[in-house]
Amino acid sequence: MPERTTGLRAIHVRPGHPDFLDLPWGMPLAAWPGATERILELPRGLSRHEVQFVDYGDGALYAVKELPAGLAEKEYGLLLEMQARRLPTVEAAGHVAAGDCSYLVTRYLDASHPYRVLFLNKGLERYRVRLLDAMAGLLVRLHLAGAYWGDCSLSNVLFRRDAGQLGAYLVDAETSELHDRLSDGQRRLDLMIMEENVGGDLLDISIAVPLPEGLRPETFGADVRRRYESLWHEVNREEVLRPDERWRIQARIKALHALGFSVQEIRFVATGDGDKLVMRPIVTDRDYHRHRLHDLTGLVAEDRQAELMLNEIRELRARMAKAHKREVPQSAAAFRWLTETWDPAQQALAPLVKTDAEAAEIYCQVLEHKWFMSEKAGKDVGLDAALKDYLKRFKPRRRKQG
């Protein structure tokens, strides 16, 4: 890209973010590493555009992407609308016009990894095969909300660990479109692009490291598509009910909740066959558990993490009900869990937690550790014992003095 002779022309920043006025907007983005001390080198996926990461302290990291004039504002608007539709994307912080280019500024997603890190980091092997479900789930969520991606690839996604699973977040919305509803043709086109792109991404990384069993570049895209189709069918399928089968309504809602989907409403349509009705659930997003946990405790977690913590709250509620010989409100159990279980555990785990986003994941690792210890002992060893053993195994060692 040619050097520019004019500098900053306009800057738009959302409240709660830095003004970014101290960045060298009059220079090409590729020259920024020598022009500002805010540049931070971070792992990244492949990108057709120049990207730099800037550090504003206290964990406030931002990605700056250089685009042709006018495109940054367009992508900024798309990301804002996606956030309004509660889709898993990076947070749009602002857009800038400088010289003959535009720049998109997004908040770096804490505790996230590009797909290349999942393969190059030896400590993340268990998460590699989770890419299939993560990509399928992300596409289903986008399509349910009327979002056509247009450039689905592993390089355009960031991944967060979620209690042994992976959560996927869209990073690049440059080619995206938002509609009230996608046609089957738009969904098929998105899936076709996905199959081609993710296969190439996996082939690229296979040159550097061996792939785990079950992940092959030539079939990866088709495998993601099969999982997508299965999940799409489950979320959108209709059921025919008779008047005496009301129990199936709650059963269907619970099944969708188990998949992490929030159900906005249930619609019933007459079939024309006596008293039978067709039940159509209206699904919104795949964050049911995290929304419920936040409502009860104020904690922010990924959906699978939240599900495990909600299970703990339910178990505590059952024990409280048995002890008091009466029903106990879930809010009361949640408060007790928060003060007597979560808070003490976080104090003990503080040496291992680098960012707020890691707190829930490490806690869930302790729960998994408790499960393994209990299975070996043939009884429930309890959280305290699991916590002590986990810290003994993983607590950072102090360096010897002198």
TrEMBL record:
Protein name, UniProt field: LPS kinase
Kindly indicate whether the keyword Metal-binding belongs to this entry.
no
Q: Which GO terms describe its molecular function?
A: kinase activity
Sorted alphabetically, which keywords does the UniProt record give? Coiled coil, Kinase, Transferase
Which parts form a coiled-coil structure per UniProt? Answer: 299-326
What are the residue boundaries of the DUF4032 domain, all occurrences included? 230-393
Q: Pfam families under this entry?
A: DUF4032
What is this organism's lineage? Answer: Bacteria, Pseudomonadati, Acidobacteriota, Holophagae, Holophagales
Q: Does the keyword Kinase apply?
A: yes
